[in-house]
Design a protein that fits this description.
By secondary structure, the chain is α/β, with parallel strands linked by helices. Helix content is 31%, strand content 23%. It starts with a strand and ends in a 24-residue tail after the last helix.
């Protein structure tokens, strides 16, 4: 009869999971509620896909491992390839030093990335992607999940993986069936953001991308400019804790002018606008502690945003999902699809995957005094040191490279605390043009016109 795995949801998490499962199951069935587009188009079930996205270097490495040549394919389709240090990045009172970090940055729209991965997955001979299919419920048989119900009919499987996102309803069904409901850590950030697509022209920006990061507690606003295929820019701006970006033309430009430095507003003012303003909101960063469940059903896993959904300003979601899929691949190298211990093994590994990006995101969230929720021990102490790292990144290529590797999930955060690196941070932070100066947003700060510009 062979073995079958079912993936619920053709998200990036679902597609990468299907690729992993295709090496361990005779048949992989991906069931997606949306009608999936043939081309690289935005789809209804991924509303955040209209906004700026980042596939961090750690995620890109895994995607290339599973789909050899896909980065070249994306670049041929118009994705823009650069280095993580090739940016105009303003943070903590000055621009970061420009340097070659050796950390790749490939910029493209979420629909291009997802559509390309979906086509690659669909080419696997034992993978079937079905769209317009709603999964009604899980089939519960004692301590095990044995399939799903689709249009009233049961479809059997050895393993079901739920990749439907942070609002997954299948965990509620399991809780009503006397399985554990995982504890949830929710950190309230009340983040909203607004996006426009612009025409990209030569000379618009002397870098691959541009970022203006907030400097809490003095301001909550940010702007991110990334190149897209089709000679376009995507400009996403927003704020935290109720600081929202207007959606009318005049208000949108005024919001850009309110950011700490003017280069995004200058570009917006002279650019050809290709879209209306699109908005999205995220109230909390959320983590389900699936690793602490004592009675998880066999034959069922959750993966991706259903485990952890981060503050999107850090761009960690897709790469964390890829690392979780890699953790599942490692588990399946030792255990069968239907193993009763697979869930516990995977959830322990997934928790370790999530720990680093959660530490980065939540640490940053708690720089804002209005943030509420469970604060990890030592967060304030770590944040004070990271503040020094940010200052050092204004002048030190070595510090910027180390920080970029951590931000791209290539190295763990403690790598910034090695004695040799702490010495570099201490020396370089003193040389930052922002050292000893109050940040923009503080009423006693210098004006934006006086801020040091990038080399």
């Amino acid at each position: 009869m062979g073995t079958r795995a079912i993936v619920i949801g053709a998200s990036m998490a679902g597609l990468l999971t299907a690729r992993v499962l295709s090496e361990h199951a005779d048949e992989v069935l991906v069931l997606e509620r949306d009608e999936l587009p043939i081309d690289n188009e935005q789809r209804r079930g991924v509303p955040q896909g209209r906004h700026a996205h980042a596939l961090l270097a750690a995620g890109e490495q895994l995607v290339e491992e599973w789909f050899p040549g896909i980065v070249d394919e994306l670049v041929a389709a118009g994705a823009v390839r650069g280095d993580g240090g090739d940016s105009r990045w303003y943070q903590s009172g000055a621009f970061k030093v420009r340097t070659d970090t050796g950390v790749p940055a490939t910029c493209m729209s979420r629909p291009l990335l997802e559509g390309t991965v979906r086509r690659r997955v669909s080419q696997r001979p034992n993978v079937t992607v079905r769209s317009g299919v709603g999964v009604g419920s899980l089939v519960v048989s004692g301590p095990r999940i044995t399939g799903v119900v689709v249009d009233g009919d049961a479809v059997g499987s050895d393993l079901v993986v739920d990749c439907t996102g942070r609002n997954s309803r299948f965990l509620d069904q399991l809780a009503s069936a006397a399985f554990d409901a995982p504890a949830i850590s929710a950190v309230k950030i009340d983040m909203s953001y607004a996006t426009r697509i612009l025409r990209r022209r030569d000379g618009d920006l002397d870098a691959t991308f541009g970022i203006i990061a907030p400097t809490p507690p003095f301001d909550n606003r940010f702007g991110v400019l990334l190149p897209l295929e089709g000679d376009r820019w995507i400009l996403t701006m927003g704020g935290f804790h109720g600081d929202t970006c207007p959606t009318d033309d005049e208000g949108y430009l005024a919001f850009a002018r309110s950011l700490a430095v003017p280069f995004l507003a200058d570009l917006l003012e002279r650019a050809e606008v290709l879209s209306p303003v699109m908005t999205h909101r995220m109230a909390t960063s959320q983590r389900r502690h699936v690793e602490k469940m004592r009675h998880a059903p066999a034959g069922f896993l959750v993966l991706g945003d259903a485990i952890c959904s981060f503050n999107p300003i850090y761009g960690q979601g897709m790469s964390s999902a890829a690392q979780q899929a890699k953790a599942l691949e490692n588990c399946l190298g030792r255990q069968a699809l239907g193993s009763s211990s697979l869930a516990h093994s995977f959830y322990r590994k997934a928790a370790k995957v999530v720990d680093n990006p959660w530490q980065i995101a939540v640490g940053g969230d708690f720089l804002h005094p209005s943030t509420t929720g469970p604060k990890p021990p030592g967060t304030d102490l770590v944040n004070r040191y990271v503040g020094k790292v940010q200052l050092a990144s204004h002048v030190s290529p070595d510090v910027l490279t180390a920080l970029t590797r951590v931000q791209n999930l290539l190295d763990p955060p403690p790598s910034l605390m090695r004695p040799s690196m702490m010495w570099k941070v201490r020396r370089a932070a003193r040389r930052s043009p922002a050292a000893g100066r109050r940040p923009i947003g503080d009423p006693h700060s210098r004006s934006a016109d006086e801020v040091s510009q990038p080399a």
